[in-house]
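Hi team, as promised in this morning's meeting, here are the two structures we talked about. I've kept the exact order from the run log so nobody has to guess. The first one is mostly here for context; it's the second one we should focus on when we meet again. Sequence first, then the predicted structure tokens.
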Amino acid sequence: MFKKLITAGMLVACAQALTATAAVGAALEEIHVTAIRGTKDARESVSAVSIVSRESLAQSQPAIITDALKGAPGVFVQQTTPGQGTAIIRGLKGSEILHLVDGMRLNNALFRNAPNQYLALIDPWIIERSDIVRGPLSSIYGSDAMGGVVHLISSRPSFTGEQWNTQSRFRVAYDSSTLGQTFNAAVASGRDGFATGASFSYQSFDDVRAADRQVQAPSGYRARAASAFTVLTDKQDRLWDLSVQFLEQPATPRYDELVPGFGQTQPASQQFLFMPNSRLFVHGSHKSAGYGRWLDALEIHLGWQQMRD
């Protein structure tokens, strides 16, 4: 009797195992996963998205663009050198984070898997907003986006009516701790369907003066930037955009320690200058829609970037 019970139990267990195997086999159907790029509401995104708005950028008065990213959810900004900074997302940085400017890659073969200075080669005064996506997006953007994406979008003023209108902006700032001076001037003009403009920036910072009147040297640097754009939109909502961006930091000091420590009489890190340190970016794009049943929309980007390091 005992042997019969054991045999019956084994048969029941085998039947259940075969049933479960068949169910698993039936569930393992072929699945196609396709990643696409396009405009989407941040609330509908499967990834964590943070947006640094134009108002936040204006309130932060950033010397470099990473100053505006401080405080954004999930973003840590690392800065060991004046005039430079790196965004860290999900513990990753450098070449593991994809940096975009108007949809074009800032990342290139020079990017290293460590804090670097290249994000600071973008004039913060021409940026309208920053979209930060936290988490891996390699399926859309490639291996650079293992930690996330920082997308900087340039400002494009729009005009309505047939009469020409002009917008201008001037900013002047002074920093007593570094005897720093910041100047920015921007002007844009246009009418319905057309806009053109330019921006000029200059920054000068001396060595930092601490509360005890000690001077932390060398920590001063200079930066100058210029940009221009032209946007044309026709009656069919077809858009053409051409822009040029340039920023240069002629000689920026690089070091890891401002003061000696651990019994040292001098900082241990080697000190040198980034020179030259500049970026030139030319970008042209075209966007249009309404081509019929075979093509919903068309978007073309052409860019050329030169970085000197």
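And here is the second protein, the one for discussion:
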Amino acid sequence: MLPNLARMFFDSVDKWRDKTVIKYKNDGVYRDVSYTKAATYVRAMAHVLKQRGVKKGDKIAILSENRPEWWYADLATLSLGAVTVPIYATNSPKETSYILCDSEVKVLFVSTNEQLNHIKDELKLCQSLKTVIMFDDSQTIESFWRLVEAYKSNPADLIEIENIGPDDLATIIYTSGTTGDPKGVMLTHGNLLSNISASSRAIAIRPSDTLLSILPLSHVFERMGGFYLQLYIGSTVAFAENMKTSAQNLIEIGPTIVLAVPRFFEKVNENIWIEIRARGTWAVALFNLSIKIGRKFSQLKRSGLKPSFLLKCAYKFFDMLVFSKIKKKMGGHIRFFVSGGAPLPKDLAEFFHAIDILILEGYGLTETSPVIAANHEERYRFGSVGLPIENVQVKIAEDGEILIKGPNVMKGYYKHEAETRAVIHDGWFSTGDIGHLDSDNYLYITDRKKDLIKTSGGKYVS
């Protein structure tokens, strides 16, 4: 296994060089960034951080929406053996202040003046904070791009990479504090690398794939699956401008894979029906018939049975007449979607499969880096969260709780040793979820142990 995430990135740079790693929207047009160019920015920012006194183990926070600079700041941090602390751009000033102070952040990357003004009064409370760097241009705060331009011609020799091991801390991710202050989940380079390697064999992503990034990078699902995993494989990531423009960005980019939470698929489903109903009674009747045929075809396919000649012809007819138009509105090149972050309703997965769109549901937690189980492109069961990935052991406790053991289990909760001991016993992590394994080892989630409900947007609600 690779020793650290920074080594993983620079190995990919050496392999893929001029291939596009990032696509981002600027002045209404998508621009390309090559692996080599991205490495230039990462090295330059690592030099900047080093000049500011950042050393191994220091905490560096990123408060930003998804954008290329998020990647560069994170990789520069990891290249020095420092620890990335991601913060949701939607967090309140109080939540942001708590994370900054609790993790003892030394440097803060912030995206815009608006974000900075939102939290500027809270920053005074964080005594460890020494430097603020803004991704947008600024006349009052150090600008990311001005610093990069100043140092990119003579970047730092990242000798620190060779001194970063699998057991070294890579990130602290704060989970939502539904029942109190959020806790910082400590994940090591080894935790994440083990999950990247195993996930790459479970979910068949290829170097030729293009992924559209729509979930926040502050979430471990997107960070591992939509960032590190893509770098490891050598594929391309395009950033959606925001959630509201994601439908248009799907058409512009034509991605082959998209990671999303169930709410995304619920919204797409709602929009399909709104458009069909707007076309009148005949359109609704035709669509209902097409879905009926699609469901029959899907069920036979999943059962390993061959459809009749007539069913094949009917399905092909509706695919050309109806389904192809829906798929075209998703860019026309989707191989499959990956759903995580919350339970995906079985009926929703079956609906999309009926129109020839496969959604692979997976399961994981921040504490497990995150993937525990996933459905595969050729092996999937709707209603289940799939098969446990390589190197991850799953067992069911007497009360039905799902227990996990493997190299992906967190180092612990930052500054919360008692809470860590409460969830990890003899190497087994208690997920708090209730479920079962079927005779073929597919995992099913049936309940939550605590009195909490997880919404389709991935949030816990009391």
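Starting points for discussion:
DSSP finds 14 helices and 24 strands in the chain.
The first strand starts at residue 20 and ends at 26.
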